[in-house]
Amino acid sequence: MPSLGLLALTAGYCDENLELQDSLTAMLKALDPLVSIVSSKCILDSLAIIAFVGEEYTEETKTIADRISQLIVQKPGSSVEVKKLSPDVIASAISAWSFILTTMGGEILDFNHWKELVSGFSSLLERTDPSILMASGEALAALFEIATSRHFPYDFVEDLKGRVLDQMRYDMINLLSDIENFLVVCIGLLYRIDLYC
């Protein structure tokens, strides 16, 4: 799979590159079962590179971005459950999607889709995996930056940004509290081990 991303970088994405177009179709279909973590991450990375190289092919890039966002933001009737995906795959999907978003400059989003994505990424902030938290935070930052450049309703965006930041602060405090409790338990265990050895 990584070779397809390299092929896109070397040969470029164009209508004449049939091998790349066929591979793109196959990769988009392969995202459904997500066979293994390694192959899923390779597919996501390759799709992000292909979208980057073929950014002037807006329809293909939008298709890739939409397909990846379906892995991240659960929609009713979706064939993939986000909760069943490994944290590594979710973080890779978020990073690939963010890369495509920043490459396209937000042109693939309208206001309603933007709101839906902000809501979806905000809900991922409730996860405890650090890689998901970091990737979600970066994606939200990119989304809010794009909202400014696309001139989405200022008051709505600022209100939503404030609520998301409040949620992030709250989640970080809880995470730090959990880490502190874990460290207290570890120190207690180390003390007991030292006492008995």
UniProtKB/TrEMBL annotation:
Checking InterPro entries in the record gives: ARM-type_fold (IPR016024), IFRD (IPR039777), Interferon-rel_develop_reg_N (IPR007701)
Q: Which family does it belong to?
A: Belongs to the IFRD family.
Q: What is this protein called?
A: Interferon-related developmental regulator N-terminal domain-containing protein
* Database matches in SUPFAM superfamilies: ARM repeat
- Domain (Interferon-related developmental regulator N-terminal) spans 4-178
Q: Which Pfam families match?
A: IFRD
**Lineage, please?**
Eukaryota, Viridiplantae, Streptophyta, Embryophyta, Tracheophyta
